[in-house]
Amino acid sequence: MDLLNALIAFLNYVFVPGVAYGSQLALGALGVTLVYGILRFSNFAHGDTMAMGAMSAVLLTWLFQSWGISLGPLPTALLALPFAIGLTILLLLGTDRVVYRFYREKKAKPVILVIVSLGVTFIYNGVTRFIIGADDQNFLDGERFIISAREFKTATGLEEGLSFKTTQGITIITAIIVVAVLFWFLNRTRAGKSMRAYSDNEDLALLSGINPERVVMITWMIVAGLATIAGVLYGLDKSFKPFTYFQLLLPIFASAIVGGLGNPLGAIAGGFVIAFSEVTITYAWKKILVYMMPESLEPSGLVQLLSTDYKFAVSFVILLIVLLFKPTGLFKGQSV
Amino acid sequence: MNATLKNTVLFGIIALLIIYVGLAQSWNSALLIIAMGLISSIMALGVNLQWGFAGLFNVGIMGFVALGGLAAVLVGMPPTEGAFAAGGFGVVGALVLGALTIFATILVMRRMAPGWRRNLVVIAILVAGFFLFRGLLDPSVERIEAINPAETGYLGGLGLPVLLAWPVGGLFAAMAAWIIGKTALGLRSDYLAIATLGIAEIIIAVLKNEDWLTRGVKNVIGVPRPVPYEIDLQNTPAFVERAAGFGFNAVEASTLWVKVLYIGLFAIVLILLMWMSQRALHSPWGRMLRAIRDNEVAAEAMGKDVTARHLQVFILGSAICGIAGAMMTTMDSQLTPGTYQPLRFTFLIWVMVIVGGSGNNFGAVLGGFLIWFLWVQVEPMGFWLMNLITSGMDLNSPLRAHLLESASHMRLLTMGLVLLLVLRFSPRGLIPER
Amino acid sequence: MSDPYGDRGNKDVSIANPKGQGSLIPRHKGQSHAAPGGPFLIGDGMTAGYGNGPDILHDCTIAVDRGEIAVIVGPNGAGKSTGMKAVFGMLDMRKGHVRLDGEDITDLSPQDRVAKGMGFVPQTSNIFTSMTVEENLEMGAFIRTDDFRDTMAQVYDLFPILKEKRKQPAGELSGGQRQQVAVGRALMTQPKVLMLDEPTAGVSPIVMDELFDRIIEVARTGIPILMVEQNARQALEIADKGYVLVQGANAYTGTGKELLADPEVRKSFLGG
Does any domain span residue C93? Predict the structure, then answer.
């Protein structure tokens, strides 16, 4: 029995990765939920928007690296991030101008916009692959660990090491800042309130003098920011591969729906619910149980509930359970 | 120009395009486009039934197609010797147990009053059921997978004629659709899109990981064929002689002939399904569906059971996708779970339906052929275009190499562009609903 | 043939958000021009309908002058709400003009009319349910660039209950309180004229009386009020001017008292 080691192992393999992944999902789900609240459709192109944003950051990082610019211990990608966000904003505003606005003016039903976003998905996906290829790209530099497992072991003398990657630290801090700023914006500023008003009641917002095009423009700008940040953080933490972003769509949608579509607070909660379910259910608990159980009761197998290949299944089952018990999600949905 | 003439011209253009491929590239490619175009049309027909007739948004087509593929393996492949004895009963027992667990959960949910007591019982049943299931499944799976892992390592199939797999594939897809539809369409608000998206990923995950069932990413190869093998044809003197009579060498003639036979089989299925779809569309049932689609409130007020009709049409459409999936695996002669990707097997079918014309069966068929043609032919076109663009560049320039290398990604871009252009300028599709 | 951009009856809330979707097309169209004389607000000889549909209003005239309450009454389907919407520019005018304060505003879109000083309270969905009472009022003042705290204080004076509940989401209030929020939101623009579409629909008789009292108070602050009412008798009692519409045309016009006294009107519309 060694509860301390068990705790460290839990933190190392479950908690820290869960928080980092949860932050990434939450940022992604926030983008989806904002589009759902304001533009009233589920944006299937969101995963690929993340890929496009991350790709801009990767290319800019390489450029900065070639110029010899770096942030010392921090990844150069952080320096590239603001510029990448700028590029993604241009991309989304351009897409809106060329593609989505037409349907808005026609008062097309949201489901048509969903189909339109499928077309945009194809195009973004193709452009990403066209520019950077379909392979893994590494763009992480700087210090790899804030705390490395070996340092931790020598410092504490424990058997288990706790490693805390720089990317995990950055992910969590960035997510907290972004979420705080977003909520301040939505609840305290005139523009943010006008977004909520438009989401709540389009006609009344129009009659109150709120310019819908402006609301939509601000929304796309925020979504571009969120998608790029989420995409870059995920890419730094795991690796940048265009196809994985498309696959993130399911856990991201699941997060947004579990939390209550259209509700930003729900998107964040949903992100963490999905992330922790995925991590805990696909983690092999043997290591932790060995520390916790007396020797005679030690498990023989891996004590892994499901293989990691089933992580999408987990997000989906959680989604289904929540929908069966609370059809509007954990937080009441459909109100930004 | 009246509608019939216009449609004939549209189909004529497709035919010309395919003939052009035959002349300019090879007849093998042309016939392959026709065969896959037929399969694509069938999938599009299924999706059109759901979206065009009933407004159901299915984004899990990939899953139903893959289930059809699974059927081809389970029906057509010979059983692995000793596998069933080794672990078959354990696996079947575990699956039955799993089903019983879910059934018991549903029963408890229905019978007991809501509250913490019910939640506790449900959780207890699910946890106990899961561990029993795994306890029974895991050792059996291990034993099955230990049997000659390089060659088999799975249960194998029933060794029945593979043509039987086509309806079975439909049946598999229909059963999955029933489960999805029952949960997603029954909820107070409809969550079909996210449900199908999720289930499709789960089906693919199962196919990739449950080696005892499908050999997972090791793939099942050599699924028996309903048509003769090329090598047998080449060894048949009568065939070689007849081929020579037409001026073909035996190798080419055999590959062509096999494809022609497949096309014949697929065409029979398509015509049959098309005939049934058209009959359904113009039957009272089809009219009721459209009435529900156009005004659900009124239809409900007239006593139509909207949910039941939606469930029916969802199951039928999915079954058609399952049949197409079985056909495709049969023609490929292999099940490769790793190749199932949503962009190719779900969203591409959507492009076919929208471009062809939502709500029109002929539109779906046209869309199936046209989009499949583009999907296959955009790559050579892209190379041609890139060669043209890069012709002036230095042969060793990295940009030129990159552009040529990237040409293969043009197809996704093109599909998106086609979809957006059609939605914008011809939102009803090429052959609009009448 | 179905609408190419329609939803084919799709009700999937996991991909499409039906809530709060608007029907107004956010576009500026046409200009206003000077047309002095006449009442403060008048829809003059309006013949109008929706889109390419049939005419619903036939040469209908509705007007309100400074310091007045004008009420539109009539049987179900008489075009009362339609008449008001026509004045507000929400349907297609085929004949006739709308003039406000000496300006012809026939060609303006509804949101441009708001900027010109028309306050409109729709019959339904007239508040932002997910926002607090105070935020509702703030949104009402969205077009104003000056300090609107005074106006908000006035609204709170007029509707004290709103001050009490200002931090509560408006959707959680009772029916009568919601109507007060709706009127308050419209007042925040400091409108030159206030138009109310059945403000007492669906509230209890006690609440209705209270609402009428509040409306009179608003009128006393000098804002002309044009309203459509289902409860004809009570409405005519407080009205300076009454319009009885039948099948989209003016049937009877007069002061509230005259109409209440008119035996024809009493017999046909006020139940004797």
Answer: yes
The answer to whether the CB of C179 falls within 8 A of the CB of C155 is no
| Residue B78 DSSP label | P
The answer to the question of residue A200 being in a domain is yes
* Whether B411 and B335 share a structural domain: yes
Among A42, A116, A126, beta carbon nearest to B423: A116
Q: Which domain holds residue C155?
A: 129-189
Tokens of A26: 């939450």
Task: State how beta strands B334-335 and B220-221 pair.
Answer: antiparallel
User: Quick one: DSSP state of residue C6?
Assistant: S
All residue ranges of chain B with pLDDT < 50 are none
Q: Does B261 touch chain A (CB under 8 A)?
A: no
Out of C5, C9, C12, name the one closest to residue B293 (CB): C9
- What number of C-beta contacts closer than 8 Å exist between A and C? 136
Minimal CA–CA distance to A45: which of A114, A110, A120, A95?
A: A120
- Which ipTM was obtained for this model? 0.93
Q: What pLDDT is attached to residue C2?
A: 62
- Rounded to the nearest 5°, which phi and psi values hold at C73? -125, 175
The total number of structural domains in chain A stands at 1
Q: Quick one: pLDDT at residue A335?
A: 47
The total domain count for chain C is: 2
pLDDT digits (tens, 9 = 90+) for A9-47: 999 999 999 999 999 999 999 999 999 999 999 999 999
Q: Are residues B230 and B103 in the same domain?
A: no
Same domain, C232 and C259: yes
- Pairing between β-strand C92-100 and β-strand C41-49 as defined by DSSP bridges: antiparallel
- Closest chain B residue to the Cα of C12, Cα to Cα: B190
Answer yes or no: do C20 and A200 touch at CB < 8 A: yes
Phi-psi bin for B198: left (phi > 0), alpha (psi -120 to 50), beta? alpha
Is 50 exceeded by the pLDDT of residue C48? Answer: yes
Q: How sure is the predictor about A336, in pLDDT bands with cuts at 50, 70 and 90?
A: very low
CA distance A59 to chain C (A): 33
Contact (CB<8Å) A41/C122: no
Q: How confident is the model at residue A1 (pLDDT cuts 50, 70, 90)?
A: low
